[in-house]
Write a structure and sequence with these properties.
Layout: H1 4-9, H2 11-29, H3 36-63, H4 65-71, H5 84-102, H6 109-126, H7 133-153, H8 158-181, H9 192-196, H10 198-215, H11 218-221, H12 227-244, H13 250-273
Helix pairs in contact: 2-3, 2-7, 2-13, 3-5, 3-6, 3-7, 5-6, 6-7, 7-8, 8-10, 8-13, 10-12, 12-13
Amino acid sequence: MKNPYIRLSRPLNCTLASVSVLIVMVTLHGLEVPSPGRSIITMIGMLVVFLFTAGGNALNDYYDRDVDRINHPKRPIPSGEIEPVFVLRFALFMFVLSILLSLFLPFFLPQLIVVVSTVLMIQYELNLKNKGFIGNVTIAWLTGSLFVFAGAIYRNLELPFVLGTLAFFATLGREIAKDIQDIRGDLGRRTLPMRWGVKRAKILTAVFILVAVIISPYPYIQGIFSVHYLLIVLFADIIFIYSLFIFKNPERTQKFIKLGMMVALLAFLSGGML
């Protein structure tokens, strides 16, 4: 992959993010053959997420260019393949394109989510990244809003909101765990573990993960999904809870939280398909 703009975009990450729209569609409508209209808005929604994520990745490389000269010297900017100003223009172009494309989706909530997410992403890179907990909340919100955005496309927010809320709290816990892991190398930042201490940060991580666990059975309790969903989501909950018992190794903790999130997605998919 030699083109610097493709490398800036990180297409694999963009594709994984855009699949959230597909997951929500299956969750809401099962495996029934989608109508032409639903197929079109699904493809548009996935492309909006893809372009937005590409813009966020490029913007991240622009603001991290000095750090990347040490940590990632082969990336397009530190390697000299592309000037920083062109990376910034590319990122802004991707954001504008995602907003314009969202206008083809049902009004007005999907467009609002894309605009707010764009503003938050820019603010995160400008100053929120270095402010600790508020930066963690921003990333968690952006992750959860992917599913709410998808739900807004299909004008059905109940299940996507549950999935988005689950993703929000699990991501928030994982972000704090990552800050605990990186506490020695986070120079110039004021992360939650730095402000409150590692012990309190671990307690807060546990609280957010347990909130995600408590929320997870909601679709089964409400009779929306069958026991198939419950069995898989309980396995995700076991992974979440296990991650809290290995907190002596924050790196493993945040990796297990990520694994739990993936199993939870599988549970929602099974709930939609069965």
